[in-house]
Amino acid sequence: MTTTATPPPRTARATATPPEQRKRGQRGGPAYIFLTPWILGVVLLTLAPMAVSLYLSFTDYNLFDPPKWVGLRNYSDMFTADPRYWRSVGTTLLYVVVAVPLKLAIALGVALLLSNTRKAKGFYRSAFYAPSLLGASMAVALVWRALYNDGGTVDELLSSIGIHTGGWVSDPHLAVFVVALLSAWQFGAPMVIFLAGLQQIPADLYEAAALDGAGRWRRFVSVTLPMLSPVVFFNLVLETIQSFQVFTPAFAISGGNGGPADSTEFYTLYLYERGFTASHMGYASAMAWVLLLAIGAVTLVLFRTSRSWVFYANEGA
């Protein structure tokens, strides 16, 4: 007697059938409709202006006459025949090197103090974050200029203890530091990020370090900084990118001319002068693209070097 094997039951297909795929496509239609404003904004307000700017960087354009194609002349003049361009690069690099570490150090220090505060924690956090809400506005920059000007509040306070500077704004060696201090004063955003990172550090690590005899400084160096390194890296990248694009404080403090003696002639301020004051929009477009590539290169370097000092808790998992 022979028996026939019963065929195994058919399993459901892993992939969707054509009707199901059509249904999914129909369900995705409303999503694209709601995304239409965003897509139009990206194309019309970002991608299209970038394409036009790239084209203008190879032209001689004065905002009034049609653009005239000149090839790489704007770039060659920028690197070989414009000493003010290189001064603006040096001023911007000095500002980045001073302002970014100073701002992050103040933000981390205040975050450490607030993380140990038990009373009125919400009030103190709001108070220290308030300057960042004002942003780099023209009004704040003008007030800052008045504080550090000749005869201003800072000058009067320093003169009362025997330090006569004659005003930081009018001193070519100190003017750039006025802008850097203004940036450091607005430390609220990185402070909040540092606070969030501090709250994620396990208390067991501090207890183990304390049992081993580690003091406060040792716990900060061996526990806090390594565990907080991803947050430090995040703030470092954001603040570096923003610092390369500083404009409003430099414009207000220098009076719009990069003075005194081009000491506050930041890259973006010089770009503005060449584009809208001198009407060399092609040259200004070339400067904008060089700035974009420079920021991208610096960001890439930061990501490459982060492998040696950024610690992630789940790396060994």
From TrEMBL:
Pfam families: BPD_transp_1
Topological category with respect to the lipid bilayer: Multi-pass membrane protein
Transmembrane feature ranges: 31-58, 93-114, 126-147, 174-198, 219-238, 281-303
Superkingdom: Bacteria
Domain ABC transmembrane type-1: from-to ranges: 89-302
PROSITE patterns, per the entry: ABC_TM1 (PS50928)
CDD domains: TM_PBP2 (cd06261)
UniProt KW Transmembrane keyword: yes
Annotated signal sequence range: none
Entry's localization field: Cell membrane
Stretches with biased composition (Pro residues): 1-10
UniProt keywords, alphabetically: Cell membrane, Membrane, Transmembrane, Transmembrane helix, Transport
Cross-referenced InterPro entries: ABC_transporter_permease (IPR051393), MetI-like (IPR000515), MetI-like_sf (IPR035906)
Region (Disordered): 1-28
PANTHER family the record matches: ABC TRANSPORTER PERMEASE PROTEIN (PTHR30193), ABC TRANSPORTER PERMEASE PROTEIN YESP-RELATED (PTHR30193:SF1)
Annotated family: Belongs to the binding-protein-dependent transport system permease family.
Protein name in UniProt: Sugar ABC transporter permease
Naturally occurring in which organism (per UniProt): Streptomyces prunicolor
